[in-house]
Here is the input.
Amino acid sequence: MSDENRFILSRGRLIALTDGVFAIVMTILTFQFVVPIVPVSVIDSELPKKLIELWPIFLCHVTSFVILGYFWIIHDRQFHHIKKVDRTFLWISIFYLMFIAVIPFSTQLLGQYINQKIAIITYGLNLIVILSLNYLYWWYATKNYRLVDDNLNFKLITAASRKILIAFIFYTIAIIMSFVNGYFSILLYIITPIYLFIPVERKLR
Amino acid sequence: MSDENRFILSRGRLIALTDGVFAIVMTILTFQFVVPIVPVSVIDSELPKKLIELWPIFLCHVTSFVILGYFWIIHDRQFHHIKKVDRTFLWISIFYLMFIAVIPFSTQLLGQYINQKIAIITYGLNLIVILSLNYLYWWYATKNYRLVDDNLNFKLITAASRKILIAFIFYTIAIIMSFVNGYFSILLYIITPIYLFIPVERKLR
Amino acid sequence: MSDENRFILSRGRLIALTDGVFAIVMTILTFQFVVPIVPVSVIDSELPKKLIELWPIFLCHVTSFVILGYFWIIHDRQFHHIKKVDRTFLWISIFYLMFIAVIPFSTQLLGQYINQKIAIITYGLNLIVILSLNYLYWWYATKNYRLVDDNLNFKLITAASRKILIAFIFYTIAIIMSFVNGYFSILLYIITPIYLFIPVERKLR
Amino acid sequence: MSDENRFILSRGRLIALTDGVFAIVMTILTFQFVVPIVPVSVIDSELPKKLIELWPIFLCHVTSFVILGYFWIIHDRQFHHIKKVDRTFLWISIFYLMFIAVIPFSTQLLGQYINQKIAIITYGLNLIVILSLNYLYWWYATKNYRLVDDNLNFKLITAASRKILIAFIFYTIAIIMSFVNGYFSILLYIITPIYLFIPVERKLR
Here is the structure.
């Protein structure tokens, strides 16, 4: 079998592995919702209160879910163009998945300690590492059209890279802003994928 | 590559992601069954008693599993007709998966506090949000035959929509009824998928 | 689209869902291995002791894993012949998956209380329900060649059914034997898949 | 249907099951990161300290992730050549997956007790059993070209076997070295996949 064919086979399994990791991470994000234990005597008054107290966790949950959805859609779009994979590309992808898998932890940390600088920074660093690895594998794949179609539009390549860089800058600002106001950082984590939604769609087409 | 082809590729991955999330949610539903810890001295008498005490959890487990099976079959049927996906559709689906992933939490809440109004309402709201998003993506996909076959029978489209609306109404009644009698609500959660089973089959064919 | 085609599509997704559930169940079986917490002062002597104490859990783990492997191989073989699925078949399969998903719980119960009748019986009942549903969907699919190839060898159909029935009988004996000697029951749970290994292979070919 | 076709069908499902198990194991590896609980009064000083204390867990996490990535890539490469599977091969693979699934436990044990001989040995034994089963199924598949292409280069077969043996030897040394210096063992666990990275690539091509 030629190398070419081998690399195309591996592409299918890498996508399966990636979809598996995303599906699991999206599902175990909910593990941070723990059913509160309330004594029977005060259950009527306490249970609703305890459930309402879960709101910062719910906020972080929605934020992470939207960001994961955003990462997944980017990955899907990139793999419309990435036609084969080589071993270096597989390793970058494995490190990418490693930090995707950490999101439930950093989300839970943020949900528990939403006004703590260290939690906000950890969460932001997690996202920045993912974006960096995303940028890295896209750069590696498109460099000299290594793993993509020869006729892939050059503008599309740079548009996708630029999109990742913008998110990178926004998340860096969010981390720096955490020294001033933590809630502003969290706001920035949320609005970045929403902001990028429309222009990216336009550019990628 | 044309947009058309791109959207067909994404459809396959969306299905893989959805099947992954359903498989995980169906499996981690069982996490609410915790092996009871019983002191050695009273193990013979206490262990069977503790296991029997799990019955409300088992009841909720079966209910949620049947409902998940129902949602999965609806999704499968809808995707027989949905031939491609666009970005808006992907986002609706991601929010749909977000609330599918919350089912283990709301099931566990209901299992722990089966006679508490707040638990019954939370569970019902979870189902209603899922149905709403299901309705929304079906409406979006079929509107002007955007993502479905041109020759798809119009009656089939409205039959599928009507089916979701009926479940929506039933679950709304269940939530309202929880102010009168909680067990009636739970009964309604269970019988809705069973009731819809036969007529839907007839209509969809 | 014809009904025929629709049912073939659903078959692929049912297999994906089933493989997903098996993969997760096989992995979360290990959740019963909890890293023991040992005070620093006695760590050298206590940690190895605590790890060795995990042996009944390890025994149950291997047993369940082999049984799951066995169920998965049966499922795979059956689906070589099952060429399409209908809604009734999907529902039987969903109930089948429900009880596959319960295996980590009943395994953990058995691992914790290996000499308790109730744990041995619960475990056995779990397996028997799975075998019954397995028998049911195989019967449903092959009845009048409903979902299988018209030219499928009749002997193969009955051989597969007989194999399931033998396991059913063995597990029933194991449950009854638990009133006499629990370890004999566990032995029977383990050797049944091993015993069936060779003859089944011969018959199915 | 001929046996030949049946075995090719099973191959696809075995790959799906394997990718599922790897995706889950890679994700639940992160379960060892537990968000620390810190009293509100000392949160500013204690939380960063507690997070930094997680470093041995993080180290073990990265090690296991790289090793899992390595195993997954080996598996992928081997299945470029393994064209069909038989029942014996399926059973070896199921035992292989059993020990892949144990990695989160042995990783967590090592993370908790990084300077305990028993933890280092357990971790090493886990890896050695995986390598042995990997060697076994590769030997079984390639013996008399049983499950691989007839025209598969003999040098490639022995190169892949040799690669597994080298890792086997390295991990055995690591276990023996744990009686002298535990950190050396851990170092060896980490560098083995990195060391094997480049030569294997060359040999396998």
